Amino acid sequence: MAEQVRVVVMQAGLGPLDYAMPAGQSLEAGQAVLVPLGPRQIMGVVWDGLEGPAFTGKGLRAVAGVLPLPLVPEPLRRLCDWVADYYLASLAGVLRMVLPSVAALGERQIVEYRLSGTQPPRLTPERSKALAALEGRAGTVRDLARAADVSEAVIRGLVNVGVLAAETVPAGQLPAPPDPDFAPPALEPAQADAARALTEAVAAGGFAPFLLEGVTGSGKTEVYAEAIAAALRAGGQALVLLPEIALTAAFTARLAARFGSPPVAWHSDLKTSERRAAYAAIADGRARLVVGARSALFLPFKDLRLTIVDEAHETSFKQEDGVHYHARDVAVMRAQFEGATVVLASATPAIETRVQAERGTYRHLLLPARFGGAAMPDISAVDLRKTPPVRGRWIAPPLAAAISETLARGEQVLLFLNRRGYAPLTLCRACGEKINCPNCTAWMVEHRLTRRLACHHCGHEMTVPPACPSCGEPDTLVACGPGVERIAEEVAATWGAARIALVTSDTITSPARAAALVAAVEGREIDILIGTQLVTKGFHFPELTLVGVIDADLGLSGGDLRASERTFAQIAQVAGRAGRSAKPGRVLLQTHQPEARLMQALIHGDAAAFYAHETATRRDLTLPPFGRLAALIVSSEKEPEARAAAQALAEAAPARTGLQVLGPAPAPLAMLRGRHRFRLLVTARRTVPLSAILRDWLVRVPLGNSVRVVVDVDPYSFM
Ligand SMILES: Nc1ncnc2c1ncn2[C@@H]1O[C@H](COP(=O)(O)OP(=O)(O)OP(=O)(O)O)[C@@H](O)[C@H]1O
Ligand SMILES: [Zn+2]
């Protein structure tokens, strides 16, 4: 009998299949192959450890070919198994995160295109957009389409008329290897203690999870850089995960200064040639230090000794489409399978992480003070009930005075409001109509810079209508409430001479733009930064001494279980940008409830009291991490079908002590991208095998073709 192998085929809905070994070859687990499926050939990966009897019938087909891809190593295979099992995903879906497209890996040479200088014979709006965006860029058709946010057809059209010229490039170059001893800093005593604990764990090998908690500006980066150096000295690889790719450029520069050579980057903004080079080098071990977005967790590292999750409290580590996983938790699991060190670094660790540290599962390292003797900023409240801004304005007199003083001293100001665009709501003065997204239960957000209304959920855009779409009255639409663009308008009107930078995902669209921003702020070309949560992370600007939080109450309205925690962390982080160097920092929180526990904890710098109270509440209510949650989101384009399916699921709900199913209820976002949505929430004791129960439940309920059920284990979004 021919030897056979089990292959996970890259096709949703299909389980693993058995194939005969190709004649005269033996295949290892982890090998990417082509296999016949019906009349086609599809990609798959030889897998091990799967249950189920082997195929014994006649007509076993043979593996058609071996793909020139690195093996998926054993620890990564086990991680894939775990992710598929825990998050109820298909192995094929998880493997799609591991394997890049074959096209990107098959070729040694890559054809890239760049602007040739020729003008197009015909200029469409799409073409103008592409021309503006592609200045100075090179990439494949797909890279350029993504960079310019136009279709590949538009790019191919420009190639055909000679506006984009082809050039053949070798797959990208790797930076020189990092040198662990290039420029180590002298550490302060608390830093040195923490660094020693980390380097010892890395040198010893074996699974070692850490929480590195250090106040903002305490020099966590310098501490974990020592752990990276230890991993490099031991001949292994290290990975740093960042919550936001926009931050990679500034961060890369810091690591380059420490190690004499930049790390290898991994994120969605890479060109195909760079991606190919990085992937190959990560797999064969030449890429020693990698900095990446959460997707880097699924790369086939040859010898991963250390993973750092920087800003580990960030909820953007939770992936909300495709496989719904939490990169922080997956990083810990990968370290466990690799037998490696993992460090969760944060000034405001999540309650989940704090509890692990209290239980002793993670070792807790603490940096209690800022580096270089810098003081923590002075935080106080601006009571909007007592000193409100004038009508139609959002900056109250005490904050305005502080801004003027700071500018007069030649120092920099940061204003934080976590809302993109100009105004969150556009309303008709005549009939009260609110302009909604046609596809979602959401208001259209005005973006004055682009003169459009945009839905932040589905991306739908339209121009601001000249008349009310409901009553037809002309010129009655008014913008309600502020977004960052509106704050910028107010700032420009009040401090006309100040140089302003708007920092949102609309303006900082790439690592290159982020780097330019950092350079402008460091070069004192900017006086006032106005931004969304993007400005709360990681930045270190010595001349920035005033932070104003425009609406400290904003995050609390959502009411989900982490609303307070998230608001606290966000404000503490943005406050932490003030006075990080020699000059003292000051933070003003505009709020309607200065007496609230959360505000008081921020003002008095009493994070411990805040977290103790939040943790106790979670424990009392058996909420995560003391209990478990999973959400099922049932959706269909047809409302009755979504409703009926959600009802059917509820009726078939597992009856089991320690487990409770709530709902169905229409989701707060009752319609999203044209689909009607219902939610069920499952709460369970920690000891209940939640994933297995969910899996059994879901296969028992037949659902219509139009119905989709998304399972979100450990949900962070309750919309
Ligand atoms: N041992 C050291 N020697 C020289 N400079 C240091 C040292 N430790 C920290 N620094 C500097 O102090 C500043 C703050 O450090 P860093 O940005 O790492 O803080 P952090 O803990 O990451 O803060 P945050 O959480 O707010 O981002 C940086 O400019 C860093 O280069
Ligand atoms: Zn929408």
Automatic annotation (TrEMBL):
Pfam family, one: PriA_3primeBD
GO molecular function terms attached to this record: 3'-5' DNA helicase activity; ATP binding; DNA binding; hydrolase activity; zinc ion binding
Isomerase among keywords: yes
Main EC class the enzyme belongs to: isomerase
One biological process term in Gene Ontology: double-strand break repair
Cofactor annotation comment: Binds 2 zinc ions per subunit.
Protein residues bound to Zn(2+) 2: C437, C440, C455, C458
SUPFAM superfamilies in the cross-refs: P-loop containing nucleoside triphosphate hydrolases
GO cellular component: primosome complex
Statement: the UniProt record of this protein carries the keyword ATP-binding: yes
Protein EC: 5.6.2.4
Catalytic activity, as annotated: Couples ATP hydrolysis with the unwinding of duplex DNA by translocating in the 3'-5' direction; ATP + H2O = ADP + phosphate + H(+)
Domain (Helicase ATP-binding) ranges: 201-367
Family listed: Belongs to the helicase family. PriA subfamily.
Reported function: Initiates the restart of stalled replication forks, which reloads the replicative helicase on sites other than the origin of replication. Recognizes and binds to abandoned replication forks and remodels them to uncover a helicase loading site. Promotes assembly of the primosome at these replication forks.
Subunit: Component of the replication restart primosome.
PANTHER family documented for this protein: PRIMOSOMAL PROTEIN N
Protein name: Replication restart protein PriA
Record organism: Polymorphobacter multimanifer
